[in-house]
Amino acid sequence: MLNRVRSAVAHLVSSGGTSSQRSKSPDLPNATSAPPAAQETPKSPRGKPRIEVGGPQKTAEPPVSFSRPTFLQLSPGGLRRADDHIGRAVQSPPDTGRRLPWSTGYAEVINAGKSRHNEDQACCEVVYVESRKSITGVPREPGHNQGFCFYYWGLFDGHAGGGAAEMASRLLHRHIREQLKDLVDILQDPLPPPLCLPCSPRTPGVSKPSQLVSPQSGWSPQKEVTHDSLVVGAIESAFQLMDEQMARERRGHHVEGGCCALVVVYLLGKMYVANAGDSRAIIVRNGEIIPMSREFTPETERQRLQLLGFLKPELLGGEFTHLEFPRRVQPKELGQRMLYRDQNMTGWAYKKIELEDLRLPLVCGEGKKARVMATIGVTRGLGDHNLKVCSSTLPIKPFLSCFPEVRVYDLTQYEHCPDDVLVLGTDGLWDVTNDSEVAATVDRVLSSYEPNDPSRYTALAQALVLGARGIPRDRGWRLPNNKLGSGDDISVFVIPLGGPGSSYS
Amino acid sequence: MLNRVRSAVAHLVSSGGTSSQRSKSPDLPNATSAPPAAQETPKSPRGKPRIEVGGPQKTAEPPVSFSRPTFLQLSPGGLRRADDHIGRAVQSPPDTGRRLPWSTGYAEVINAGKSRHNEDQACCEVVYVESRKSITGVPREPGHNQGFCFYYWGLFDGHAGGGAAEMASRLLHRHIREQLKDLVDILQDPLPPPLCLPCSPRTPGVSKPSQLVSPQSGWSPQKEVTHDSLVVGAIESAFQLMDEQMARERRGHHVEGGCCALVVVYLLGKMYVANAGDSRAIIVRNGEIIPMSREFTPETERQRLQLLGFLKPELLGGEFTHLEFPRRVQPKELGQRMLYRDQNMTGWAYKKIELEDLRLPLVCGEGKKARVMATIGVTRGLGDHNLKVCSSTLPIKPFLSCFPEVRVYDLTQYEHCPDDVLVLGTDGLWDVTNDSEVAATVDRVLSSYEPNDPSRYTALAQALVLGARGIPRDRGWRLPNNKLGSGDDISVFVIPLGGPGSSYS
């Protein structure tokens, strides 16, 4: 995200951040993928190791390694081109070899110079989940449910360094897998989920959820809990555990900065779209736009932030006020009446200016310039555990939430055609493009390819990235309408909704 | 609201609550309407005094006075019929004499016995707002803006006594008028509102907002503040001041209980629909349904309530847990794993049951049985300052919000026909009727009257109330489909959207 963290970038660069992470998480036993090693040559598109090279050394600072998604299969030379702020070449997986699952399209481009490297990261995986019980070695009953696969796509938009985005792109789906292990049998059982499990997750014994405490039994009224809501809960818990892991390991592994996370899990017929940050997902279906996420910014989360500042004034450190004013209050205005909003209000009213109102507002600015504590422009995501108010020791993390909003889309409720897609983009795309323009590009590009041409989704992703980047003209990158193109990192997934059972898989 | 406050009713009845209020508010100078006096004869439909008589004395308790909206023009005999739980006669303003503004339709019916009196109240007024500055006696400039009128409709659904609803129906529009006095000139000036006013509201001097600190000046970026958002802020502030007045005066004037408030302000071409509670407003326009409110209940506000309990655990008094479980945890389940949700989650996950989880959940139950602290089923409204958890001294008020959500509807953006209406109803209506059924009734009833017959909106309100009440049959009030009708108080306004400039006014 361009300028998402004002001041913090310089602050953190000077403290030596932005290196990528390689540790294997101690929280994630039985990891199927080995941690990447520097300078390793590319493997298969969906293998785990990432190519990493020293970044261009423009200053006397020590070299900083960086990486791009493995599925791009970049050679060291390709990686250097992907890291070139001048050319800003659009990167996609090669048209040869194995495709991404579902023939997913992907394209990315680096920023125009706002940070040394591309701080976006991406991940696309097929993940097998084995029931935790079978791991214990207990013999299966006949007909006992097997594990299942989920399909996974993730976009991670880093700020104040690429470390958090890199770590999340490598580990978040493994946290999700861990959370789903307990649910393998439950999700495949048509009966309602058991409300209570008799013992710890690793203890063998009960093999069928329907034999556990039945949701129909019990002495008090009880709520209906759907299978979907268990998957949502698993994804929410995984985000939290990922954030906690970053907190634990940030010192040892230099995970500076933070990242927005937008991930999609396809499981048992449904897409779960989880968003924490200001990336965006939309479905374009038969020309219709279905929003699958909303953005979390100081403006959209103003009332949550103000409530927290009001209830926990110690978090404001005597430097900030939880009240919002339409502009900064000046000392000479003491005693006058200015418009304000508190945590309960959506409208504005006048209040007499008092001494406390001269403090900096907790939330200020509008649109892309909105900030929490004059520092960060996004209010949900992973990481940022070290983020402080500029020239202060006041931590900002208490105001940030690592929890995503998860929306569920049932793929079986509609017969999708090859032109129906789910588009994921970091804010580099959406800063200069709106939903309707994206839908128009979907129509224009896909209609120019045969419906069964699997390269059409990559072409669409490239068209979306190019359309947001623009072309270099006098004074910067320009769109056809001569407006400024996006100078931010731009990353786009295009997921055809034909699904794993379609001809694309 | 039927059963909205479990236990609390008995608790408060035994402490002598439920009487109506008659004091003139010290906060509302220059009130245009005198406080009502008991046993006064009816005045004009829009006059202020209310008829009040002693209620039927079914027990040895002291007589409790009650009142119905003045515009019903009820005689003492009519008032007794309106108070009859057996007959449940539908009440409307008489078809003779002066109509309600805009030919508004209104109907109500008392509950089937859940409380001694009808705890709903209603208000419909035309309120003139004079600029505060002119009150100071400063001579007006030529062309200086005059005051303005707003039209006002309010439904107040009381619980645990009728006092709060009665007080709100008598005073809330006066609080709104007070808040609007500062805005008389500003709202009629096409320039953007001034962000800062130089002095106190009662100090004369500056006469045109455009001469004040201009929104285009200033040294820092500033937000756009619309005229609409000032009206929204005025309504929000008025709700807060009304609630504070109830808190101050509750002892002296026996304002026990609380109430939901749904009010509509029509001002300068726009309808402002403000809702705090579980009443509902919808517009039916050319057959289309436009929701104009949402309900605030323990279910819809679960995460706000849990966050508050998490951040301020002292409010839970060691008796409650902020976590939600699908049913009450049993002591024998200690150490087992149960589904739960915290303040960050919308999905469910399993957690190991610990001792603290055996406490009562802050939020429990589903649908109409959902409760905060096992007591109250609505989370926004006015009053409830004395409400305690049953058999405890733990106050519930900190979890309740007096702030409404305000939605704005611009009447000038659409040419309305005589069949386009705004329907307001207390939950007695919506518990047994949905939006589509209401829209069908709107169509059926209005099409059976001439478009220019002003009695059609009252007929529609009566049809809606009758349709929700049902008819007395074996074992209670029954709807045509033999389902139970609403046993709650039911109150309905039908506001034609022709507006004050139409032939209806």
How is this structure best described in words?
- The structure is a homodimer of 505-residue chains.
- Chain A has helices spanning 8-13, 76-82, 132-135, 163-181, 184-187, 227-253, 302-311, 427-430, 435-446, 456-469, and strands at residues 52-54, 65-67, 105-109, 120-129, 148-159, 196-197, 258-267, 270-276, 280-285, 288-291, 320-321, 337-340, 349-352, 360-361, 363-364, 371-372, 382-383, 405-410, 421-425, 471-473, 476-478, 490-496.
- By secondary structure, chain A is an alpha+beta fold.
- In chain A, strand 9 and strand 10 (288-291) form a beta hairpin.
- Chain A starts with 7 loop residues before the first helix and ends in a 9-residue tail after the last strand.
- The model of chain A is unreliable at 7-27, 29-64, 134-140, 202-219 and 501-505 (pLDDT under 50).
- At the A-B interface, strand 6, helix 6, helix 7, strand 12 and strand 13 of A face strand 6, helix 6, helix 7, strand 12 and strand 13 of B.
